[in-house]
Amino acid sequence: MAPKITITRATGTWVVRAGGAVLGESKNALELSEGDYPSVIYFPRSDIATAFLDASSHTSHCPHKGDASYYSIVTKSKTIENAVWSYEAPLDAVSKIKDHLAFYPSDDVTVERV
């Protein structure tokens, strides 16, 4: 059985940081919840400083969302490989996440509501 996916507007202002820099801030972020997985914040591409992102050759496929493209974050001190993903042509059921980017939180990448 497919996990239930819900997409809602994320309340408040959300920010993503990496390498000491703010990569983006948005009041229009989306929150995607999928089954028992932790919720994921999707930022509108227009709210992200994409100059920090470098397209990766890595891809993945989700039977519920479609094919994901990945990006690495290039900071002054390091490159954080495949830390960002996007569904360029998501399946109809999750079409709201088109033109949005999601980030893997880690020691190097912070996604938080401010």
TrEMBL record:
UniProt superkingdom: Bacteria
Annotated PANTHER family: BLR5716 PROTEIN, DUF427 DOMAIN PROTEIN (AFU_ORTHOLOGUE AFUA_3G02220)
Ranges where the DUF427 domain occurs: 15-105
Gene3D superfamilies cross-referenced by the UniProt entry: Domain of unknown function (DUF427) (2.170.150.40)
UniProt name for this protein: Uncharacterized conserved protein, DUF427 family
